[in-house]
Amino acid sequence: MGIGGISVGSLLLILIIVLLVFGTKKLRNVGGDLGGAIKGFRSAMKDGESNDKDDDQEPAQLQSRSQEGEEITRKTDTSESRDRSSS
């Protein structure tokens, strides 16, 4: 028994028919494209995992940056208020 109840002889016959219909060059191109797609998918998954790890480490940095931004905004607001009152 082969895959899903298909015998090995039937699988070989299907393979021969596919080779005759598409040709080896076309199948080689399809195989290369499929391999490239799988490789790209795997690298994207690895990048996603590394970004998740980076995101876990960043909240403290982001919080300190947002506090610095608030301080800058406060200083800018007070200086603008002074400019308006002096005009």
UniProtKB/TrEMBL annotation:
Keyword RNA-binding: no
UniProt xrefs under Pfam families: TatA_B_E (PF02416)
Ranges that cross the membrane: 6-24
Any one GO biological process: protein transport by the Tat complex
GO molecular function ontology, one term from the record: protein transmembrane transporter activity
Record's bilayer topology term: Single-pass membrane protein
Bias (Basic and acidic residues): 67-87
This protein's record includes keyword Protein transport: yes
GO CC term, one of those recorded: TAT protein transport complex
Principal location: membrane
UniProt keyword list: Cell membrane, Membrane, Protein transport, Translocation, Transmembrane, Transmembrane helix, Transport
Cellular localisation: Cell membrane
InterPro entries in UniProt: TatA/B/E (IPR003369), TatA/E (IPR006312)
Job of this protein: Part of the twin-arginine translocation (Tat) system that transports large folded proteins containing a characteristic twin-arginine motif in their signal peptide across membranes. TatA could form the protein-conducting channel of the Tat system.
Oligomer status and interactors: The Tat system comprises two distinct complexes: a TatABC complex, containing multiple copies of TatA, TatB and TatC subunits, and a separate TatA complex, containing only TatA subunits. Substrates initially bind to the TatABC complex, which probably triggers association of the separate TatA complex to form the active translocon.
Cited PANTHER family: SEC-INDEPENDENT PROTEIN TRANSLOCASE PROTEIN TATA (PTHR42982:SF1)
Family annotation (HAMAP family): TatA_E
Family listed: Belongs to the TatA/E family.
Name of the protein: Sec-independent protein translocase protein TatA
